[in-house]
Amino acid sequence: MSDPMTDRLPPHNKEAERSVLGGVLRDPDMLPSVQQILKGDNFYFDAHQKIYQAISDLANENQPFDLVLIHERLKKNKQLEDVGGVMYLTELWDSVPTGANAEYHAKIVRDTAMVRSLIHAGNEILRDSYDRTQSADELVSQAERKIMDIAKAGMVGETYTLTQTLHEAFTRLDSRIGKDNLAVSGLPTGYVDLDNITAGLQKSELVIVAARPSVGKTAFALNIVRNIITNINPSEPPAVVAFFSLEMARIELAERLLCAQSRVDSHKVRKGHLNSDDIQKLMDAGDVLRQARLYIDDTPSRSMIQIGASCRRIDKKHEKEGGLQLVVIDYLQLIEPENRRDPRQEQVAQVSRRLKFLARELNIPVIALAQVNRASEDRQDHKPRLADLRESGSIEQDADTCMMLHRPGKFDGATDDNILEIIIAKQRNGPTGEITLTWRKGYNRYENYIADANHNDGL
Question: 140 — phi, psi (to 5°)?
Fold first, then answer.
């Protein structure tokens, strides 16, 4: 008995394909717009692929194309009979009265081609799954890569005039001028000196926070998140933040947030040695944090496809309130690669690029924590540098801002170990420099260094 699924013809739209070719023949000026949408193999019919290729070849050679010239090119390529001869070319010309709708029909052809690709990928995934010659993880990784390749192939490029872009720039400038705090145009981190250098966390930017293990990357990122989600403005909806923890369990993160917010010693919380005052502080902190819209994903093995899908769901869920506003990932080198067989450097490079794409797609800042190698420990000042980023130089290349964390007290013994130096080693759209924060170790809390100098513990 035959399988009705395999007996079906793959999805296609012959009339849309004919309309694209007829439209381009009628109006050659439509070809550049069509070429931004379609590739030759998007056509289902072989004759249409060959005709489209002949048109594209003539255009790429800066030659005009019409029925006569295309006829001659196909004849030269010995493809004229394959496409149905001059009679079929004439039919294409007659199939549409104008080329005005060629772009619209091209999108139909592209979408139908994507559906065919999905069917093909699905069949391959089924075949490989039944064969069981690979591990489940490898099968999932391959399936993710196939779907991602189809999604990328369907992306349509678009260009904008300088006039349009200047209008967007002045609109953004107007929104910045209208703010009470002119120094911060992005999402405020809650740290005055840091916001003065970066103007806040900027939309569509990838921010790398890098350091050696146990310097305080997670605590720093969590404190930025805490500052953002507890900065409740009655005139604006609470910020929506997603935190992907590939190393630490969500309950540990929740305890850290409680200690930082309440200023209760984390060691006392861990041991359960709490007095009534401590418990009240924790309860009050919990009331504040419950108002926040923070999503925590502590799944230890996550790929960029899974992270991206989660972010899009959260963004869609809060679309009416402004959507997702910040993503934090702890940490970059623990993200599952798309292909485990690739060299490690290429795996990290792919993850780094995906993070930047995610920031641009959702138009939000993405903070990714990263490890640095041991080279900094051998230097006299022990300060990390961009070149110390582990496993791939593409992290530095893709990042808009790179912050290197350094605790001098860990090395020299003389400096107060409560001091954290943040080295802005790269900022694509702003200055570099260094700032200092105070580390309240017992509370898992970072505070403004200037405020501490003035004996003010407030943020």
Answer: -65, -40
- Domain 179-254+287-453 grouped into CATH 3.20.20.70: no
Please give the pLDDT value at position 2.
Answer: 41
247 has catalytic annotation? yes
Chain centroid to CA 99: how far? 37
What span, in angstroms and rounded, lies between the C-alpha atoms of 459 and 448? 7
User: Residue 456 has what pLDDT?
Assistant: 43
CATH number of the structural domain 4-152: 1.10.860.10
pLDDT at 99: 84
pLDDT tens for 244-295 read 988 888 888 888 888 888 888 888 888 777 788 888 888 888 888 888 888 9
From the list 15, 91, 168, 247, the catalytic residue is 247
| Cα–Cα distance measured from residue 185 to residue 201, given in angstroms and rounded to the nearest whole number | 8
419/406 Cα distance (integer angstroms)? 9
- 450 class by beta-carbon count within 10 Å (0-12 exposed, 13-18 middle, 19+ buried): middle
- Which residues face 403 on adjacent strands? 209, 424
Give me the pLDDT at residue 225, please.
Answer: 93
CB contact at 8 A, 220 and 405: yes
Q: For residues 69 and 55, what is the distance between their CA atoms, to the nearest angstrom? A: 9
Within 10 angstroms of residue 11's Cβ, the number of other Cβ atoms is: 14
Closest CA to 314 of 330, 300, 326, 304: 326
pLDDT tens profile 171-206: 766 766 655 555 577 888 888 889 889 888 999 999
Can you spell out the DSSP letters for 322-345? T---EEEEE-GGGSBPS-TTS-HH
Which residues are 401's β-sheet partners?
207, 427
* Nearest-angstrom CA–CA distance, 324 and 305: 17
Taking the C-alpha atoms of residue 264 and residue 279, their distance in angstroms, rounded to an integer, is 9
* pTM of the full structure: 0.69
| Pairwise CA distance, residues 129 & 25, whole Å | 45
Collect the ranges in the chain with pLDDT lower than 50.
1-5, 451-459
The sheet that has 293-297: what strands, in order across it? 293-297, 240-245, 326-330, 366-371, 206-211, 401-406, 419-427, 433-440, 445-448
How many angstroms from the chain centroid is the CA of residue 39? 26
Give me the residue spans of the domains in the chain: 4-152, 179-254+287-453
Residue 429's pLDDT is what?
Answer: 84
Same CATH topology for 4-152 and 179-254+287-453: the answer is no
